[in-house]
Amino acid sequence: MTTQEFLGKENFNIQSTAVSESCPSNIALIKYWGKYKDQIPANPSISYTLNHCKTNTTIEFFANESFSVQTFLSGNEEVNFAEKIEKYFKNIEQYLPWILKGKYIIKTENTFPHSSGIASSASGFGAIAKCLMKLDETFSGKNSEEESLQKASFLARLGSGSACRSLYNGLVVWGESDEVNGSSDLFAVKYADDEIHPIFKDFNDWVLLIHEGVKSVSSTVGHGLMNTNPYAERRFQEARENFVPMKGILKSGDLTGFIKLVEHEALTLHAMMMMSDPAFILMKTGTLEVINKIWDFRRETELPLFFTLDAGANVHLLFPNDGSEEQIKSFIESELLQHTQKNGVVKDVMKF
Ligand code: DP6
Protein backbone atom coordinates (compact mmCIF):
# COMPACT_ATOMS: atom_id res chain seq x y z
CA MET A 1 0.00 0.00 0.00
CA THR A 2 1.07 3.59 -0.58
CA THR A 3 0.15 6.87 1.09
CA GLN A 4 -2.15 7.56 -1.92
CA GLU A 5 -4.58 4.98 -0.62
CA PHE A 6 -5.11 6.99 2.56
CA LEU A 7 -6.08 10.26 0.83
CA GLY A 8 -9.42 11.57 2.11
CA LYS A 9 -12.70 11.82 0.19
CA GLU A 10 -13.29 15.27 -1.26
CA ASN A 11 -17.05 15.03 -0.61
CA PHE A 12 -17.84 15.57 3.03
CA ASN A 13 -20.55 17.09 5.11
CA ILE A 14 -19.32 18.56 8.40
CA GLN A 15 -21.41 19.29 11.48
CA SER A 16 -20.68 20.20 15.09
CA THR A 17 -20.35 17.07 17.19
CA ALA A 18 -18.33 15.38 19.95
CA VAL A 19 -16.63 11.97 19.96
CA SER A 20 -14.80 9.98 22.64
CA GLU A 21 -12.26 7.18 22.34
CA SER A 22 -9.79 5.32 24.49
CA CYS A 23 -6.40 3.85 23.51
CA PRO A 24 -3.80 1.88 25.49
CA SER A 25 -0.03 2.42 25.64
CA ASN A 26 2.44 -0.17 24.36
CA ILE A 27 5.92 -1.44 25.18
CA ALA A 28 8.33 -2.42 22.42
CA LEU A 29 10.27 -5.71 22.52
CA ILE A 30 12.25 -5.02 19.33
CA LYS A 31 12.73 -1.27 19.42
CA TYR A 32 12.07 1.53 16.96
CA TRP A 33 14.96 3.98 17.33
CA GLY A 34 15.85 6.02 14.26
CA LYS A 35 13.57 7.25 11.48
CA TYR A 36 13.50 8.88 8.05
CA LYS A 37 11.37 11.68 6.60
CA ASP A 38 7.59 11.48 7.13
CA GLN A 39 7.87 9.15 10.12
CA ILE A 40 9.23 6.17 8.20
CA PRO A 41 10.97 3.87 10.70
CA ALA A 42 14.58 2.84 10.07
CA ASN A 43 13.75 -0.71 11.16
CA PRO A 44 10.72 -2.84 12.01
CA SER A 45 9.60 -3.06 15.66
CA ILE A 46 7.27 -5.31 17.65
CA SER A 47 5.43 -4.42 20.85
CA TYR A 48 2.96 -5.64 23.41
CA THR A 49 -0.13 -3.49 23.81
CA LEU A 50 -0.88 -2.91 27.49
CA ASN A 51 -4.31 -3.56 29.00
CA HIS A 52 -4.64 -0.93 31.76
CA CYS A 53 -2.43 2.09 30.88
CA LYS A 54 -4.73 4.08 28.61
CA THR A 55 -5.57 7.57 27.41
CA ASN A 56 -9.24 8.58 27.27
CA THR A 57 -9.93 11.45 24.88
CA THR A 58 -12.96 13.52 23.92
CA ILE A 59 -12.85 15.80 20.90
CA GLU A 60 -15.50 18.50 20.55
CA PHE A 61 -15.67 19.79 16.98
CA PHE A 62 -17.33 23.13 16.17
CA ALA A 63 -18.05 23.17 12.44
CA ASN A 64 -17.39 26.23 10.28
CA GLU A 65 -15.53 28.19 12.95
CA SER A 66 -11.99 29.28 12.18
CA PHE A 67 -9.42 26.56 12.80
CA SER A 68 -8.03 26.46 16.34
CA VAL A 69 -7.19 23.82 18.92
CA GLN A 70 -7.50 23.98 22.69
CA THR A 71 -6.31 21.00 24.77
CA PHE A 72 -6.88 20.01 28.39
CA LEU A 73 -5.00 17.26 30.24
CA SER A 74 -6.90 16.12 33.34
CA GLY A 75 -8.78 19.42 33.32
CA ASN A 76 -5.67 21.65 33.01
CA GLU A 77 -5.14 23.61 29.83
CA GLU A 78 -1.98 22.53 27.96
CA VAL A 79 -0.93 25.21 25.47
CA ASN A 80 2.20 23.40 24.19
CA PHE A 81 0.23 20.25 23.44
CA ALA A 82 -2.37 22.33 21.55
CA GLU A 83 0.39 23.80 19.34
CA LYS A 84 1.67 20.32 18.61
CA ILE A 85 -1.81 19.12 17.67
CA GLU A 86 -2.42 22.17 15.42
CA LYS A 87 0.75 21.35 13.53
CA TYR A 88 -0.26 17.70 13.36
CA PHE A 89 -3.74 18.50 11.99
CA LYS A 90 -2.23 20.78 9.31
CA ASN A 91 0.15 17.99 8.37
CA ILE A 92 -2.61 15.39 7.82
CA GLU A 93 -5.06 17.58 5.86
CA GLN A 94 -4.66 15.57 2.63
CA TYR A 95 -5.84 12.45 4.49
CA LEU A 96 -8.77 14.21 6.22
CA PRO A 97 -9.72 17.15 3.94
CA TRP A 98 -12.27 18.54 6.44
CA ILE A 99 -9.79 18.77 9.31
CA LEU A 100 -9.01 22.50 9.19
CA LYS A 101 -12.67 23.53 8.84
CA GLY A 102 -13.56 24.00 12.47
CA LYS A 103 -12.54 24.61 16.05
CA TYR A 104 -11.49 21.85 18.45
CA ILE A 105 -11.62 21.40 22.20
CA ILE A 106 -9.72 18.25 23.13
CA LYS A 107 -10.01 16.83 26.64
CA THR A 108 -7.71 14.01 27.55
CA GLU A 109 -6.77 12.01 30.63
CA ASN A 110 -4.43 9.12 31.31
CA THR A 111 -5.25 6.19 33.58
CA PHE A 112 -1.59 6.14 34.66
CA PRO A 113 0.19 8.86 36.68
CA HIS A 114 1.03 11.90 34.55
CA SER A 115 4.57 12.20 35.93
CA SER A 116 5.35 8.50 35.55
CA GLY A 117 7.27 8.81 32.29
CA ILE A 118 5.14 6.06 30.77
CA ALA A 119 4.81 6.83 27.07
CA SER A 120 1.69 8.94 26.88
CA SER A 121 2.40 9.96 23.28
CA ALA A 122 1.58 6.43 22.06
CA SER A 123 -1.79 6.18 23.81
CA GLY A 124 -2.41 9.93 23.32
CA PHE A 125 -1.97 9.98 19.54
CA GLY A 126 -3.68 6.58 19.29
CA ALA A 127 -6.78 7.98 20.98
CA ILE A 128 -6.75 11.17 18.89
CA ALA A 129 -6.42 9.16 15.64
CA LYS A 130 -9.38 6.98 16.67
CA CYS A 131 -11.47 10.09 17.42
CA LEU A 132 -10.52 11.57 14.02
CA MET A 133 -11.63 8.41 12.24
CA LYS A 134 -14.95 8.56 14.09
CA LEU A 135 -15.43 12.17 12.94
CA ASP A 136 -14.41 11.15 9.41
CA GLU A 137 -17.11 8.46 9.36
CA THR A 138 -19.72 11.01 10.39
CA PHE A 139 -18.60 13.55 7.76
CA SER A 140 -17.47 11.36 4.83
CA GLY A 141 -19.29 8.04 5.25
CA LYS A 142 -18.49 4.70 6.77
CA ASN A 143 -15.49 2.50 5.96
CA SER A 144 -15.08 -1.14 6.93
CA GLU A 145 -13.80 -1.58 10.48
CA GLU A 146 -10.54 -2.97 9.14
CA GLU A 147 -9.96 0.02 6.83
CA SER A 148 -10.83 2.44 9.57
CA LEU A 149 -8.37 0.84 12.05
CA GLN A 150 -5.63 0.77 9.46
CA LYS A 151 -6.12 4.43 8.65
CA ALA A 152 -6.21 5.27 12.37
CA SER A 153 -2.85 3.49 12.72
CA PHE A 154 -1.52 5.38 9.66
CA LEU A 155 -2.64 8.72 11.15
CA ALA A 156 -1.36 7.89 14.64
CA ARG A 157 2.10 7.15 13.18
CA LEU A 158 2.24 10.69 11.76
CA GLY A 159 1.67 12.00 15.31
CA SER A 160 4.13 9.69 17.07
CA GLY A 161 5.73 6.61 15.51
CA SER A 162 5.15 4.14 18.32
CA ALA A 163 1.49 5.25 18.58
CA CYS A 164 0.58 3.34 15.40
CA ARG A 165 1.17 0.06 17.27
CA SER A 166 -1.35 0.94 20.02
CA LEU A 167 -4.35 0.52 17.70
CA TYR A 168 -4.24 -3.26 17.95
CA ASN A 169 -4.14 -5.54 20.97
CA GLY A 170 -1.71 -8.38 21.62
CA LEU A 171 1.61 -8.31 19.76
CA VAL A 172 1.87 -5.68 17.05
CA VAL A 173 4.44 -5.04 14.30
CA TRP A 174 5.26 -1.73 12.65
CA GLY A 175 7.78 -1.52 9.81
CA GLU A 176 8.41 -3.74 6.84
CA SER A 177 9.86 -7.13 7.76
CA ASP A 178 10.29 -10.17 5.51
CA GLU A 179 9.28 -12.24 8.53
CA VAL A 180 5.83 -10.70 8.98
CA ASN A 181 3.17 -10.94 6.26
CA GLY A 182 1.51 -7.65 5.39
CA SER A 183 3.90 -5.57 7.53
CA SER A 184 4.35 -1.97 6.43
CA ASP A 185 6.33 1.17 7.22
CA LEU A 186 3.08 3.16 6.94
CA PHE A 187 0.95 1.49 9.61
CA ALA A 188 1.09 -1.30 12.17
CA VAL A 189 -0.34 -4.81 11.79
CA LYS A 190 -1.41 -7.33 14.39
CA TYR A 191 1.00 -10.25 14.78
CA ALA A 192 -1.03 -13.40 14.04
CA ASP A 193 -2.40 -14.84 17.31
CA ASP A 194 -2.03 -18.41 16.02
CA GLU A 195 1.72 -17.82 15.58
CA ILE A 196 2.07 -17.06 19.32
CA HIS A 197 2.60 -19.73 21.98
CA PRO A 198 0.11 -19.44 24.91
CA ILE A 199 2.92 -18.58 27.37
CA PHE A 200 3.23 -15.17 25.66
CA LYS A 201 -0.51 -14.44 25.79
CA ASP A 202 -0.77 -13.92 29.53
CA PHE A 203 2.13 -11.74 30.62
CA ASN A 204 2.75 -9.08 33.26
CA ASP A 205 4.40 -5.71 32.72
CA TRP A 206 5.05 -3.97 36.04
CA VAL A 207 6.63 -0.57 35.46
CA LEU A 208 9.00 0.50 38.23
CA LEU A 209 8.95 4.29 38.39
CA ILE A 210 12.66 4.87 39.04
CA HIS A 211 12.51 8.52 38.05
CA GLU A 212 9.31 10.52 37.79
CA GLY A 213 9.36 13.73 35.79
CA VAL A 214 10.59 15.10 32.51
CA LYS A 215 13.37 13.24 30.63
CA SER A 216 16.61 15.09 29.82
CA VAL A 217 16.39 14.17 26.10
CA SER A 218 13.09 13.63 24.28
CA SER A 219 12.50 10.60 22.01
CA THR A 220 12.26 12.90 19.01
CA VAL A 221 15.73 14.34 19.67
CA GLY A 222 17.05 10.83 20.38
CA HIS A 223 15.76 9.51 17.04
CA GLY A 224 17.43 12.48 15.32
CA LEU A 225 20.81 11.64 16.86
CA MET A 226 20.74 8.27 15.07
CA ASN A 227 21.32 10.23 11.82
CA THR A 228 24.95 10.85 12.82
CA ASN A 229 25.53 7.75 14.95
CA PRO A 230 28.28 5.66 13.33
CA TYR A 231 26.67 2.47 14.67
CA ALA A 232 23.19 3.27 13.33
CA GLU A 233 23.25 1.16 10.13
CA ARG A 234 24.48 -1.89 12.02
CA ARG A 235 21.79 -1.37 14.62
CA PHE A 236 19.00 -1.10 12.01
CA GLN A 237 20.29 -4.26 10.37
CA GLU A 238 20.40 -6.09 13.71
CA ALA A 239 16.82 -5.12 14.54
CA ARG A 240 15.72 -6.49 11.15
CA GLU A 241 17.68 -9.69 11.78
CA ASN A 242 16.20 -10.08 15.26
CA PHE A 243 12.80 -10.76 13.71
CA VAL A 244 14.08 -14.17 12.56
CA PRO A 245 14.77 -15.60 16.05
CA MET A 246 11.79 -13.68 17.49
CA LYS A 247 9.40 -15.44 15.11
CA GLY A 248 10.68 -18.88 16.14
CA ILE A 249 10.67 -17.97 19.84
CA LEU A 250 7.07 -16.73 19.74
CA LYS A 251 5.89 -19.85 17.94
CA SER A 252 7.72 -22.40 20.12
CA GLY A 253 7.30 -20.70 23.50
CA ASP A 254 11.08 -20.46 24.05
CA LEU A 255 11.04 -18.25 27.13
CA THR A 256 14.83 -18.38 27.62
CA GLY A 257 15.40 -17.16 24.06
CA PHE A 258 12.75 -14.46 24.54
CA ILE A 259 14.39 -13.15 27.72
CA LYS A 260 17.82 -12.97 26.06
CA LEU A 261 16.51 -11.18 22.96
CA VAL A 262 14.25 -8.71 24.78
CA GLU A 263 16.95 -7.67 27.31
CA HIS A 264 19.50 -7.36 24.48
CA GLU A 265 17.14 -5.02 22.59
CA ALA A 266 16.63 -2.84 25.68
CA LEU A 267 20.35 -2.54 26.38
CA THR A 268 21.13 -1.88 22.71
CA LEU A 269 18.65 1.01 22.70
CA HIS A 270 20.49 2.62 25.62
CA ALA A 271 23.90 1.78 24.13
CA MET A 272 22.84 3.75 21.03
CA MET A 273 22.11 6.74 23.27
CA MET A 274 25.56 6.49 24.85
CA MET A 275 27.18 6.32 21.40
CA SER A 276 25.31 9.37 20.09
CA ASP A 277 27.05 12.71 19.62
CA PRO A 278 26.33 14.38 21.97
CA ALA A 279 26.08 11.30 24.16
CA PHE A 280 23.28 10.98 26.67
CA ILE A 281 22.27 8.52 29.38
CA LEU A 282 18.67 8.14 30.47
CA MET A 283 19.23 5.28 32.94
CA LYS A 284 19.66 6.24 36.60
CA THR A 285 21.53 4.48 39.41
CA GLY A 286 18.27 2.73 40.35
CA THR A 287 17.88 1.39 36.82
CA LEU A 288 21.26 -0.38 37.01
CA GLU A 289 20.66 -1.63 40.55
CA VAL A 290 17.36 -3.18 39.49
CA ILE A 291 18.91 -4.81 36.40
CA ASN A 292 21.68 -6.39 38.48
CA LYS A 293 19.20 -7.64 41.07
CA ILE A 294 17.04 -9.19 38.32
CA TRP A 295 20.08 -11.01 36.93
CA ASP A 296 21.09 -12.29 40.41
CA PHE A 297 17.50 -13.40 41.09
CA ARG A 298 17.34 -15.28 37.80
CA ARG A 299 20.68 -17.01 38.46
CA GLU A 300 19.56 -18.07 41.93
CA THR A 301 15.95 -19.10 41.24
CA GLU A 302 15.81 -19.74 37.47
CA LEU A 303 12.45 -17.95 37.51
CA PRO A 304 11.49 -15.98 34.36
CA LEU A 305 11.67 -12.38 35.60
CA PHE A 306 13.29 -10.03 33.07
CA PHE A 307 13.22 -6.42 31.93
CA THR A 308 12.87 -4.03 29.07
CA LEU A 309 13.40 -0.26 28.99
CA ASP A 310 11.91 2.47 26.89
CA ALA A 311 13.56 5.84 26.37
CA GLY A 312 13.77 6.63 30.08
CA ALA A 313 14.98 5.41 33.48
CA ASN A 314 11.94 3.32 34.37
CA VAL A 315 12.23 -0.47 34.27
CA HIS A 316 9.47 -2.57 32.72
CA LEU A 317 9.47 -5.86 34.65
CA LEU A 318 8.19 -8.66 32.44
CA PHE A 319 7.08 -12.08 33.70
CA PRO A 320 4.52 -14.66 32.59
CA ASN A 321 1.54 -15.90 34.57
CA ASP A 322 2.85 -19.45 34.51
CA GLY A 323 2.62 -20.39 38.19
CA SER A 324 5.86 -18.65 39.21
CA GLU A 325 4.31 -15.18 39.39
CA GLU A 326 3.60 -15.09 43.16
CA GLN A 327 7.25 -15.72 44.04
CA ILE A 328 8.32 -13.08 41.49
CA LYS A 329 5.81 -10.53 42.81
CA SER A 330 7.04 -10.89 46.39
CA PHE A 331 10.64 -10.46 45.20
CA ILE A 332 9.65 -7.26 43.38
CA GLU A 333 7.86 -5.89 46.45
CA SER A 334 10.67 -6.75 48.88
CA GLU A 335 13.77 -6.10 46.76
CA LEU A 336 13.05 -3.87 43.77
CA LEU A 337 10.45 -1.38 44.93
CA GLN A 338 13.05 0.32 47.17
CA HIS A 339 14.84 1.61 44.05
CA THR A 340 11.86 3.69 42.92
CA GLN A 341 11.50 7.36 43.78
CA LYS A 342 8.21 7.10 45.69
CA ASN A 343 7.40 3.37 45.84
CA GLY A 344 5.94 3.91 42.40
CA VAL A 345 4.90 0.91 40.36
CA VAL A 346 2.25 0.65 37.65
CA LYS A 347 0.95 -2.91 37.34
CA ASP A 348 -0.20 -3.81 33.88
CA VAL A 349 -0.89 -7.06 32.10
CA MET A 350 -1.05 -8.30 28.52
CA LYS A 351 -3.82 -10.86 28.14
CA PHE A 352 -5.19 -11.82 24.74
C1 DP6 B 1 12.26 3.87 22.71
O1 DP6 B 1 7.31 6.90 19.10
O2 DP6 B 1 7.99 8.28 21.09
O3 DP6 B 1 9.90 3.84 22.94
O4 DP6 B 1 8.00 8.96 16.55
O5 DP6 B 1 9.38 10.77 17.55
O6 DP6 B 1 7.10 10.29 18.47
P1 DP6 B 1 8.34 9.74 17.81
O7 DP6 B 1 9.02 8.74 18.84
P2 DP6 B 1 8.37 7.66 19.80
O8 DP6 B 1 9.64 6.70 20.03
C2 DP6 B 1 9.55 5.55 20.79
C3 DP6 B 1 10.87 4.97 21.03
C4 DP6 B 1 10.93 3.79 21.99
C5 DP6 B 1 10.91 2.47 21.24
C6 DP6 B 1 9.61 1.97 20.69
O9 DP6 B 1 8.54 2.29 21.24
O10 DP6 B 1 9.69 1.20 19.71
Automatic annotation (TrEMBL):
Gene3D superfamilies: 3.30.230.10, GHMP kinase, C-terminal domain
Superkingdom field: Bacteria
Metal-binding as UniProt keyword: no
Record-linked Pfam families: MDD_C, MVD-like_N
Domain Diphosphomevalonate decarboxylase-like N-terminal: 24-179
Coiled-coil regions listed in the entry: none
Every Mvd1 C-terminal domain range: 207-341
Keyword Lipid biosynthesis found: yes
InterPro entries on file: GHMP_kinase_C_sf (IPR036554), Mev_decarb (IPR005935), MVD-like_N (IPR053859), Mvd1_C (IPR041431), Ribosomal_Su5_D2-typ_SF (IPR020568), Ribsml_uS5_D2-typ_fold_subgr (IPR014721)
Keyword line: ATP-binding, Lipid biosynthesis, Lipid metabolism, Lyase, Nucleotide-binding
Name of the featured protein: Diphosphomevalonate decarboxylase
UniProt organism field: Chryseobacterium kimseyorum
